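Hi team,

Below is the intake form for TauD/TfdA-like domain-containing protein from Phialophora macrospora. Please confirm the fields before the structure is written into the shared record.

FORM ID: S-0412
PROTEIN: TauD/TfdA-like domain-containing protein
ORGANISM: Phialophora macrospora
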Amino acid sequence: MPHATNTEYHHIQLKKLAPTFAAEITGVDFSKPVEKEVFDEIHRAIVDYGVLVFRNAGLDDAHHVAFAALFGELDDVKPYLVLGRKNRFPFDELFDVSNQEDDGSLVKLGSKRHHMGLGNSIFHVDSSFNPRRAGYSLLRAHQLPPRGNGGNTDFADTRTAFDELPDDLRKDLLENEYIGAHSLMHSRKKAAPKDSEWLKDVDPEKFPFGRHDVVQTHWRSGRQNLYIANHMHHLEYKKPKSTGFVPTKEQPYERVPEPQSTDLIERLLAHASQPRYVISVEWENEGDLIVWDNTCVMHKAGEGTFMEKYARDMRRCTVHDGSIDAWGYNERTTKRMGLP
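The structure came back. Fields below:
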């Protein structure tokens, strides 16, 4: 069912891209600093629609970072640099989500960078595995392969997915108040070939989990939302079910037993990724910009034939979540996960 909004916009124009979420925005002059009244409407639109597409925004790296900073405190790539990655860009606030190695050469199929990046091709939200999750992401096309070679970005509307939960599933979620334990290494391993040289022996249990409620009130809109992702390694009970459960630093909440935990995660992901909740956005021009709210949509990289043939140079700024749920059930620390 389409979600109605009564918001009036006077400085920007919107074209809905799907019945329940996502809009293309025009009327913004990115050749100069975005004026407050214009940004206020952009900010309101992201609350209403979750995903905003700006064609031919034409931002360079510096203006990309400056525009992203209007949304809040920016994340950076320092955890990746510590592990040995080099930054091709002049700003640590820009994440490299391209098919290029640090030296600019194309990533080879079957390489470490390729296998590590396959997790981007399954539905997820940015940084749910970190103590403080991501709020907004701003992804810009710096260089695109020729059209017809794929490389769309797909989005899933998890607010409407919650609205349309089957009755039994809704009852289960509300009664049990599950916590999702998110792991970057879990999603990387899940998406990679089973015999991946770099991931087959990785044990996600040896890495930190980011813990967040599965069902949340999306604070900006007041709507209920499924905060789920393929990063979810397992589920936990907010309130213990066993009288003998003793919380520890490593296991502060009682785990949902297997296979119940995995089955429920996969059922939720399958429900929220049904075609009626998903839109695939094509990158039409170098300079296109897409902004989305990780706290109410999932996203993934679409399929394509450009790998090893054409550069797809995509640059992302990530804004730390500023909501009351930003830290979930995690220690308030600056430690974050990275990939070598």
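SUMMARY LINE: The chain has one domain: 13-320.

Thanks, M.
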